[in-house]
Design goal:
With 431 residues, the chain is mainly alpha-helical. The chain contains 19 helices and 4 strands. It has one domain. Helix content is 66%, strand content 3%. InterPro entries: Azg-like, Azg-like_bact_archaea, NCS2.
């Protein structure tokens, strides 16, 4: 094992990699309960999704560790999860069964891209500013959902939205969780979200706002309600609406993984001079395979978690730390009874603060260039206001192409962007 993972060459050890793997898992563990809770709002069976989430995280991370030998944890992404539930299923009224087929389709396309030279073409085609705007926009969208679920922001006939009842005990519980997680983040805790959710659950049970679970450990629930549904409904994805959905799944998953790959690779010395990452192709393959597997099991796109940097911070340098994460995901299958205590009051603070972290990309956008600032602004602002990540992307990309043409820079626009612009126009025309 030491020889396979090159412990000596990487100047690491079994103990260091194990501790790093445990650290990474703890920073990601909130996803095990947050993902099923969100998908339940789209009508999906929560317990089956829990199993699918744990298994896809385990398999994806094990592939990442053993095949790609990269210290990175995988699990269904929070942004992708929110898009699936709130934009696709609730906003566009698409059945979750069909949406899962869209996830599978995006995973297959991602797999083809990762196995060929297409990945470089796509990375170069999308302007960096728009990638940053998409990430920040998703952050605002997730935060808005969290604020709504917490009851801090509510519907208002006069102004569309307004401040909720801050004396409501459930709202106060969410605010408590928000404060705890924020303080822990400020104090530099790598597992702030996990601890904050746990503290919120405990306080909720003390004040009778959350029921005490009847058990903690049990055999994993059945995955029968979701297993294979994506394959059974694959024929329903061939329409303009689902094409936009699949593109959005693919875009978010691909660039989430690529960005995390560079971030982790640069920290452990695997970033090459040409900007590529050592074993990067294998890492992308691991991610795409995990998405395909996860969709068949019954969960959303499995993607690389930037929380993996917490493991790197305590010494992760090889794929063995990922193996540890994968094993811990498998063990977590036996803790499904804890799903009963993960209410919206518990998950809302996590959504809000994950969203705030994603908004950090705003500072990297070139706001002094109108063709960039206007299209980036449309991308960011329209995601929460239209309640759709896909439509925010469509407006932003379309406006970028139009503004660049009138700027006299039509030749600088990548052909892929022109193709996407035409597809978005068709989508808006027939939606």
């Amino acid at each position: 094992m030491s020889r396979y993972f090159n412990f000596q060459e990487k100047e690491t050890s079994f103990r260091t990699e194990t501790i790093a793997g445990i650290t990474t898992f703890l920073t990601m563990a909130y996803a095990l309960f947050l993902i099923p809770s969100v998908l339940a709002e789209a009508g999906m069976p929560e317990k089956s999704v829990f199993v699918a989430t744990a298994l896809s995280g385990a398999i994806g991370t094990l592939i990442m560790g053993i095949f790609a030998k990269f210290p990175m944890g995988l699990a269904p992404g929070v942004g992708l999860n929110a898009f699936f539930a709130y934009s696709v299923c609730i906003g566009m009224d698409i059945p979750w069964q069909t949406a899962l087929s869209g996830v599978l389709a995006s995973g297959i396309i991602f797999l083809i891209i990762s196995a060929t030279g297409l990945r470089e073409l796509i990375i170069k085609a999308i302007p960096t500013n728009l990638k940053l705007a998409v990430s920040a926009g998703i952050g605002l969208f997730i935060a808005f959902i969290g604020l709504k679920n917490a009851g801090i922001v509510v519907a208002n006939e006069a102004t569309f939205v307004g401040l909720g009842d801050l004396t409501n005990p459930t709202v106060l519980l969410s605010i408590f969780g928000l404060i705890v997680i924020s303080i822990l983040m400020v104090r530099g805790s790598n597992i702030a979200i996990f601890i904050g959710m746990a503290a919120t659950v405990v306080v909720g049970m003390i004040f009778g706002l959350i029921d005490v679970p009847t058990s903690i450990i049990s055999m994993p629930p059945s995955m029968a309600p979701t297993f294979g549904v994506a394959l059974q409904n694959i024929g329903n994805i061939f329409n303009p609406q689902m094409i936009l959905v699949i593109f959005t799944f693919l875009f978010m998953d691909f660039f989430d993984t690529a960005g995390t790959l560079v971030a982790v690779g640069s920290k452990i010395g695997l970033l090459k001079k040409d900007g590529s990452v050592e074993n990067g192709s294998k890492a992308l393959l691991a991610d795409s395979v995990a998405t395909c597997i996860g969709s068949i099991f019954g969960t959303t796109n499995t993607t690389s978690y930037v929380e993996s940097l917490s493991g790197v911070a305590v010494g992760a340098k090889t794929g063995f730390s990922s193996v540890v994460v994968g094993i811990l995901f498998l063990i977590s299958l036996f803790f499904s009874p804890l799903l009963t205590v993960i209410t919206s009051a518990v998950t809302a603070p996590a959504l809000i603060l994950v969203g705030s972290l994603m908004c950090s990309n705003l500072k990297e956008i070139e706001w002094d260039k109108p063709e960039v600032s206007i299209s980036s602004f449309f991308t960011v602002i329209l995601m929460p206001l239209t309640y759709s990540i896909g439509e925010g992307i469509a407006f932003g990309f379309l406006s970028y192409v139009v503004l660049m043409i009138f700027k006299g820079k039509a030749k600088k626009i990548h052909p892929v962007m022109y193709v996407l612009a035409v597809l978005f126009i068709i989508y808006f025309a027939v939606r």
